[in-house]
Design a protein that fits this description.
Elements lengths: L8 H9 L16 H13 L1
């Protein structure tokens, strides 16, 4: 299995906004803002 180079959550969100990544049509719009999402991932990564 090939792996991509790791990127930050902020970069992933920026890429979604720039339409570099496409969310499936079954996904709803983001409810949380960027800062809330970054804080969640930071918390998860810190355990």
């Amino acid at each position: 299995m090939a792996y991509e180079t790791p990127i930050t959550i902020k970069k992933a969100i920026d890429n979604i906004k720039k339409r570099h990544y496409v969310l499936p049509s079954i996904q709803r719009e983001f409810v949380w803002d960027t800062e809330q999402i970054e804080k969640l991932f930071d918390s998860l990564m810190r355990d």
